[in-house]
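Priority: medium. Attachment 1 of 2:
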């Protein structure tokens, strides 16, 4: 999902949603079963509200259906970052460009009905200005390669709970290094995470539900409401632009 953030004239009906779920240490207790049942009920009710709000918000959206399927895109790509073949790079000029319209969301579906991309505008200048200011407050550190891949001259922070190499979720290395500065960034942008989570829940309710269905260990948390964290790209003299790679849509 791509969110275009800036100032515009489109107003989105709000359906602010708060989903919380904590672990109870008695795995087979009646209290735990009741807590899970209540959580699923509240989650389903939240999704109903978000879908209703999204239906009104996206009624004038530009909808494009492409000939490929989401399943096919997943099949031909990989979780590893790989350069695109020359046949694709040499034909980039023939790709369809879709100009950005601040008053009209864009939805791209595969021929199988799978959601491939969604683009919209976050019409809240205060939230955007706050994001920019809090990024500027982050400590500067030398950039590093991710899995041996050079991402560009801009700096990158991974502030999240994740488990890419472990069965048990843990706090990312960047968040541990930046400590209070990173946590303060996440706290100051809670309104942004809430806005984006509401949009996400309305356009992709099943994925939203799968993200929030299960609890995390007590020592970790979902820092960005629906998401367990975020990646912060910090530009300097060069724009934030990642190299063209074959990235698995299921991990994007």
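Attachment 2 of 2:
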């Amino acid at each position: 999902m791509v969110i275009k953030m800036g100032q515009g004239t489109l107003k989105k009906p709000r359906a602010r949603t708060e989903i919380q779920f904590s672990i109870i240490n008695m795995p087979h207790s009646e209290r735990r079963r009741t807590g899970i049942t209540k959580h699923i009920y509240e989650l389903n009710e939240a999704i109903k509200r978000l879908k209703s709000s999204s239906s009104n918000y996206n009624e004038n959206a530009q909808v494009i259906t492409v000939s490929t399927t989401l399943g096919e895109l997943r099949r031909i790509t990989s979780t590893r970052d790989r350069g695109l073949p020359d046949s694709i790079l040499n034909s980039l000029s023939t790709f369809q460009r879709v100009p950005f319209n601040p008053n009209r969301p864009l939805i791209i579906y595969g021929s199988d009905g799978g959601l491939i991309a969604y683009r919209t505008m976050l019409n809240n200048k205060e939230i955007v200005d706050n994001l920019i200011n809090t990024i500027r407050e982050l400590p500067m550190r030398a950039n590093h390669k991710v899995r041996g891949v050079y991402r560009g001259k801009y700096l990158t922070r991974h502030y999240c709970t994740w488990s890419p190499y472990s069965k048990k979720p843990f706090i990312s290395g960047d968040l541990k290094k930046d400590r209070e500065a990173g946590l303060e960034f996440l706290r100051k942008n809670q309104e942004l995470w809430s806005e984006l989570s509401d949009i996400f829940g309305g356009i992709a309710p099943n994925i939203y539900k799968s993200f929030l269905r299960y609890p995390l260990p007590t020592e970790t948390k979902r820092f960005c409401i629906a998401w367990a964290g975020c990646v912060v790209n910090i530009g300097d003299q060069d724009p934030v632009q990642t190299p063209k790679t074959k990235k698995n849509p299921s991990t994007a």
